[in-house]
Amino acid sequence: QVQLRESGGGLVQAGGSLRLSCAASGRSFGRHPMGWFRQAPGKEREFVAAIDWSGRATSYADSVKGRFAISRNNAKNTVYLQMDSLNVEDTATYYCAANLGSSALVRREGDYDSWGQGTRVTVSS
Q1: 94 pLDDT tier (thresholds 50, 70, 90)
Q2: Considering only Cβ atoms within 10 Å of each terminal Cβ, which end of the chain, N or C, has fewer?
Q3: What is the pLDDT of residues 76-87, one digit of tens each?
Q4: Mean pLDDT, to the nearest integer, of 50-65?
Q5: DSSP alpha helix (H) spans, the chain
Q6: Which of 75, 38, 69, 68 is nearest to 54 (CA)?
Q7: Contact 78, 21 (CB under 8 A)
Q8: Residue environment code for 18-45, b if the CB has 16+ CB neighbours within 10 A, otherwise e
């Protein structure tokens, strides 16, 4: 298993930026694709972004494409989510997740095996 811990959430005004971090420990972090998901109040958890083990391939939800950027530093066992041009619809709890079962970039929640506790992002208008 991989243990994950998110940080970097907070309150930001619309149009602002935040950078989320997800620190991993346990099994070899650098071998696995990683993903970010989010869950807004009263809504189901949804895919945000994913990155392959090398950091060279990424995938984004249409709602964040061009505004968010996922990256990773395998030497630091950390994956990041840079969020720019935030709007109120981005308000949610953000979770990072590890896909331990394959090397593919996937968007289904069920394909991820390990999850962090989440970090809350609130965007005010």
Answers
A1: very high
A2: C
A3: 999 999 999 999
A4: 96
A5: none
A6: 75
A7: yes
A8: bebbbbbeeeebeebbbbbbbeeeeeeb
